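quick one, 392 residues, struct below
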Amino acid sequence: MQSFIPTKRTLMGPGPSDVHDRILEAMARPTLGHLDPEFQRMMEELKGGLRALFKTENAMTFPVSAPGSAGMEMCFVNLIEPGDKVVVVKNGVFGERMRENVVRAGGEAVMVEFDWGTAPDVSKVAEVLAANSDTKILAFVHAETSTGVRADAAALCALAREHDCLTIVDAVTSLGGLPVEVDAWGIDAIYSGSQKCLSCTPGLSPVSFSERALARVRARKVPVQSWFLDLSLVMAYWDGTGGRSYHHTAPVNPLYGLHESLVMLFEEGLEESHARHAVMHEGLVAGLEDMGLDFLVHPDIRLPMLNAVKVPDGIDEAAVRAHLLQEYDLEIGAGLGPLAGKVWRIGLMGTSAREENVELCLTALADALGKQQMHVDGLKALEAARKAMSDD
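---
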């Protein structure tokens, strides 16, 4: 074996996003023991940063030592007991993953399904909750990565409170790029990922649990089915008030990276980060529309950080992605499920949400489409994008 030296890519798919050099440098710092007092000081700073990011006072806010999928599972396995009814909103791939978690935890999943590319209709969700008065939890995706759709999280959480339900919210793609207001919206359990708008490496999942959620955990009649993700055991390690006990060997260096990503985020300003994602999105939209490309999602419900772009008739979408990767070292994503072969998913997340990336993407797409005899004016598209980004 020889050392692996990866090609330097520009990551504009659905995740991971580009990782800033500062974060990579932070991860290369000397490893400490996971019970070292110096490391524990950093852990407390990390928890405080995540509370500020989630806009919450929840004490139970910390990064799970595994990817966003583990954060999702932690929320479901801790809050669901066998027989519990859970209403799951599905308008893409990740609503289906929620359903899987409900079933595997022994719960009963009641599905409220919407067409891919559309946002959940709050009134329809209300009808389902009214017809299922014994529902314990409402679960939904704030930012559906498979389609680029934003749900009205505030309205859905308010609805859950009206029906005395807890909420589980997927904010894997939205956190850091869109406002996420855990306390103001009344979210009970929420999970995200380190590799998207936070621009850290994959492998960590920030989560937060309300006191209502913790009361449900304390009142459980049966043990949590997962030992590793059992909230009461994990928090014995993350609790800085009563002395930490060993649960697992924390991923020390990746946590350095997440800490640095939060330092950078707050240096920029959270609202400024949201604004930057929005401006880069407007630039990309202007350029792509100038090239004659259409979007899957209506502007009112589009995510700025995940853009689902329709593949024009007669274009080999996989060949376009391959051309971008081979000729420009640029990665964009393919469609999933019923959208496979029909859309590209172009990410503008964290460090990837910058003008140079928007311009590279437009230039590369114009070239790739030209190779398939769809002639577009790449320079004109760049002008449209630059105007949109400067106007904003």
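The domain at 270-391 is CATH 3.90.1150.10 (Aspartate Aminotransferase, domain 1).
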